[in-house]
Amino acid sequence: MRFGSITLLFLFNIFIYADCKVTGVAVDDVLNVRQSSNPNSDIIGELASDSSGIKVLKCQRRESGGTWCKIKYRDSIATMIGWVNSRFISCDKPKIITIPRGTKYCVSSVKRGDVLNVRIGPSPSAKKIGELGYMSTELNIIMCADFPNGTRWCKIFYNYKGSTITGWINAKYLTACEDN
Length: 180
Hints:
With 180 residues, the chain is mainly β. It folds into two domains: 2-91, SH3 Domains (SH3 type barrels); 95-176, Roll (SH3 type barrels), CATH 2.30.30.40. The protein contains one helix and 15 strands. Strands 8, 9, 12, 13, 14 and 15 form a six-stranded antiparallel β-sheet that branches. The longest helix has 11 residues, at 2-12. The protein starts with a helix and ends with a strand.
């Protein structure tokens, strides 16, 4: 199943706020974190065989074979960002929710005068790429995913000043528009 989780990250091709852990590393060994997505790259850190709380920022398949993921790991001392071979990490996989095609959604549960941030990935810490005002309409849902931490995020698209914006919002701020 761990490869399926990484494959899902490729499908999104975005930051996934996943709770990942080291797997397939002997108890008396470590997972090397490298400067780049190359097995010959400099080692910039190590993760113990029981490390968890790893966030995958992106993954890429190498021409020479193998898949490498850029990760972020924070312990009590420092934050480390580097690359690991995907076969040594396992991530909780979100459950994908099918939304009926053509259903329009409105922003709800946002106070008047406030905005809902649209993000590049399904996480409150992902980069903000837009915002929606109170009761914004004509949001089209591409897909939604339920994450192991109990949140549901939806990938949406909407028109803004003649451009189509695609991003992610927390589903708790959405409701089906009444005119559907």
